Amino acid sequence: MAERNCRRCSTSLGIDDDLCQACGARNPLRHPWYIWPLAAVIFLLAFYFLVDVEALRDYVTRPRVPPPGAGD
Ligand SMILES: [Zn+2]
After folding, report:
1. What's the 27 CA to ligand 1 centre distance in angstroms?
2. How far apart are CA 9 and CA 18, in angstroms?
3. What distance in Å separates the CA atoms of residue 9 and residue 69, rounded to the nearest whole number?
4. Model pTM score
5. Which residues in the chain belong to E strands, given as ranges?
6. Burial of 67 from C-beta contacts in 10 A (0-12 / 13-18 / 19+)
7. What region does 24 belong to: left with phi over 0, alpha with psi -120 to 50, or beta?
8. For residues 13 and 22, what is the distance between their CA atoms, to the nearest angstrom?
9. I need a surface site. Which of 2, 54, 60, 65 has the fewest CB within 10 A?
C-alpha cells in the first residue's frame, strides 16, 4: 500500500491513522466504490447462512389460524 501523508501538513501517517500526529487533522481513509455493495453481499450471505431460511419461509407462508385450544 502506498504511504499516506497528512493532507494538511504532509507528515507521513501510519496505515491506520485517521488523525495526524503532528497537526491533528483528520485524514479519513478513502474506501473504494465497491466497498458498500461488497458489504451488502457479505451481509446477505451471512444472513442466509445464519438464518434458517426454510423455517422463515414456512413461517411467512403458513396460514394464520389459531391452534385448537388456544385462547381459553
Ligand atoms: Zn498533519
Report:
1. 8
2. 14
3. 75
4. 0.40
5. 4-5, 12-13
6. exposed
7. left
8. 9
9. 2
- Cα distances from 36 to residues 40, 41, 71, in angstroms, run 6, 9, 47
Residues 6+ apart with CB under 8 A from 3: 12
Kindly give the distance from the C-alpha atom of residue 4 to the centroid of ligand 1, in angstroms, as a whole number: 11
Residue 46 belongs to what H/E stretch?
helix 35-50
Which residue in 4, 44, 46 sits closest to 21, CA to CA? 4
Which phi and psi angles does 10 have, rounded to 5°?
Answer: 65, 10
pLDDT digits (tens, 9 = 90+) for 4-33: 899 999 999 988 888 999 999 998 877 788
